[in-house]
Write a structure and sequence with these properties.
By secondary structure, the chain is an all-alpha fold. The chain has one domain (28-120). Helices cover 74% and strands 0% of the residues. The radius of gyration is 17 Å and the shape is elongated. The N and C termini lie far apart (37 Å). It binds zinc ion. Zinc ion (ZN) binds at residues 24, 92, 97, 100.
Length: 122
C-alpha cells in the first residue's frame, strides 16, 4: 500500500509537457482542499461511528468486526480516501476535470452527511 501511495504521488508530481495549456496541476489548491475534506469527513465518520457503538447502537452498513476494530476502520477509511484520489487522478489525466472535482465533492458530502446523522443520535 505504501509503495502504491508513493507511486501515485510520483505520477502526480510529474506534470508532463503534454498537458494542454490552461489546465491545472493535479495538486492545486482546490484538489488539496477537497482531498483534505474527504479525509476529514472520513475521520469524523470513524469517530461518530465509535461514539454510536459506545452508546449501544449498531452499525448497519459495515461488518461489526471492521467497525469495532478502530485501526482497521481507520485503515479502511483512508483506503477509500486514497481510492478517491486515484479516481480523481485518472479523471485529471483523461481531461475530465469537472468529474475529477465532482467525485471528491460527492464523496465528502455523503460521508459528512453520515457523520452528521451519527452525531445527531443522542
Ligand atoms: Zn484536473
Amino acid at each position: 500500500m505504501k509503495k502504491y501511495i508513493v507511486m501515485l504521488f510520483f505520477l502526480a508530481s510529474t506534470c508532463s509537457p503534454q498537458d494542454l495549456p490552461g489546465e491545472h496541476s493535479f495538486f492545486d489548491a482546490k484538489n488539496i482542499s477537497l482531498f483534505a475534506a474527504v479525509a476529514g469527513s472520513r475521520l469524523l465518520d470513524v469517530h461518530s461511528t465509535s461514539r454510536c457503538l459506545k452508546a449501544r447502537y449498531y452499525e448497519t452498513q459495515l461488518p461489526p468486526s471492521l467497525v469495532s476494530n478502530k485501526p482497521a476502520f481507520i485503515g479502511y477509511s483512508f483506503a477509500l480516501a486514497g481510492l478517491n484520489m486515484q479516481a480523481a487522478y485518472i479523471l485529471h489525466k483523461t481531461h475530465h476535470h469537472k468529474l475529477e472535482r465532482a467525485i471528491s465533492v460527492a464523496h465528502f458530502g455523503a460521508v459528512a452527511a453520515t457523520a452528521g446523522r451519527n452525531y445527531s443520535i443522542p
